[in-house]
Amino acid sequence: MARQQFIDQIYHLVKNEYDNKTFTFEEVWKKIIKESKLSKEEQKQNIGIVYTDLLQDARFVYTGNKKWMLREFATQEEIAQYQNALYDFNTDIAEEGYIPSVTQATTKDEEEEVEDKGPSEEEEEDMDVKSSLEKTVIDEDEE
Questions:
Q1: Considering the entire predicted model, what is its pTM?
Q2: Contact criterion met (CB below 8 Å) for 76 and 83
């Protein structure tokens, strides 16, 4: 199946089954696998490509917490909020208590202070997405 066909299939599935509600990639990918009858090898070959294509397709908007929705059902204000939450921590929608892990010294004599607090929330979310994508491969026997 061609790359664009997967994204078009996801779009039609979401439009028909989710309408203006949010969905996860994992939910729709499992449905696509069953509809397309992809082998385990085909799933492994395509899951990353399809996820990347979803990220780049303007018909979809990422709302956070592994959730997506169709852009046509989001208002311009909602889209702006989602984008600000992802890219700008100085907005009202940023999580309370956010503390940058790197702070710069206020004078020449002070050294730069770097706190190692482990992965950032964004890095943890990326790890969660990768982990859930790996778990989404379905054995043909499980169908």
A1: 0.60
A2: no
Q: Which of 133, 96, 101, 136 is closest to 117 using CA atoms?
A: 101
Cβ-contact 105, 112 below 8 angstroms = yes
The 3-state secondary structure of 92-106, one letter per residue: CCCCCCCCCCEECCC
Q: What are the structure tokens assigned to 62, written together?
A: 């990422």
Q: How far apart are CA 77 and CA 83, in angstroms?
A: 10
What's the pLDDT tens digit per position in 100-110? Answer: 554 444 544 44
Between CA 14 and CA 22 the distance in angstroms is 9
Over residues 88-136, the pLDDT tens digits come to 655 444 455 555 554 444 544 444 444 445 666 766 776 666 666 666 6
- The DSSP annotation for the chain comes to --HHHHHHHHHHHHHHHTTTS-EEHHHHHHHHHHHHT--HHHHHHHHHHHHHHHHH-TTEEEEETTEEEEGGGS-HHHHHHHHHHHH-TTSTTSPTT---SEE--SSSSSPPEE---SS-HHHHHHHHHHHHHHHT---GGG-
From the CB of residue 78, how many other CB atoms can be counted at a distance below 10 Å? 14
